Amino acid sequence: MPSPLSEADLVLRLRAARLESFHETPFPQFNSRPARPAAVLLPLTAIEKEWHLLFTRRADTVEHHKGQVSFPGGATDPQDASPEETALREAEEEIGLRRDDVRIVGRLGEMLTVTNFLVTPIVGVFSWPYTFKIHTLEVGRVFTMPLAWLADPSNRMEFVRQETGRTLIAYLPYDGELLWGATARMTVEFLRAVQMV
After folding, report:
1. What share of residues in the chain are helix, strand, coil (percent, to 5)?
2. What is the DSSP string of 32-89?
3. Strands 139-146, 117-125: pairing kind
């Protein structure tokens, strides 16, 4: 396992954090309709003894967030009994990461997105290397970023959007990919939960 943070450490820190909702100011246009429940998987893996988070770049054919960096995930289906089931189902559908190959280690607080989804981030660990089966209508690319790079404050910017009062987080490009918005906020909240920032 990667040093100095073991999988057991991750589990303990996530349990200790037990993050509540982000309590961000909702966008005014979403006040009149309820947010749709959704979940994403924050897939963690150890590559050469260093923790990495796995991301996807969404295909240009999807309805929301075309070409953007995201975690595997999506809207809750009626048959999903929990956010964990939603995240695992979506990860299997989008990138072929089988639910039996993922160990759930925790969850973060819910987050309201600009597209009016109430997203629960689920943290899971899988073994590397892995053979993915990418659903190309939804996903353009699968890649990882090291947690150490993501935790380095010199690699990201945070500023408040005047029109919404919300904090926007954007990372510097990594391997040609730009991590920003809700996915960047979830990433930073995860890093805070495991005490890396």
Report:
1. 25, 30, 40
2. TSPPEEEEEEEEEEEETTEEEEEEEEE-TTSSSSTT-EE-SEEEPPTT--SHHHHHHH
3. unpaired
Secondary structure of residue 150 in the 3-state scheme: helix
Q: Is 93 helix (H, G, I), strand (E, B) or coil?
A: helix
Domains and CATH numbers, the chain: 7-193 (3.90.79.10)
For 78, phi then psi, to 5°, come to: -55, -30
With H, G, I as helix, E, B as strand and everything else as coil, classify residue 182: helix
Q: How far is CA 84 from CA 74, 158, 194, in A?
A: 11, 29, 19
Nearby residues of 32 by Cβ (< 8 Å), 6 or more positions away: none
pLDDT digits (tens, 9 = 90+) for 56-98: 999 987 766 678 999 999 999 999 999 999 999 999 999 999 9
Taking the C-alpha atoms of residue 163 and residue 29, their distance in angstroms, rounded to an integer, is: 12
**Cα distance between residue 15 and residue 157, in whole Å:** 28
Q: What is the DSSP letter of 189?
A: H
Strands 111-112 and 117-125: antiparallel
Strand 69-70 with 50-58, pairing: antiparallel
Task: Give the predicted TM-score (pTM) of the model.
Answer: 0.90
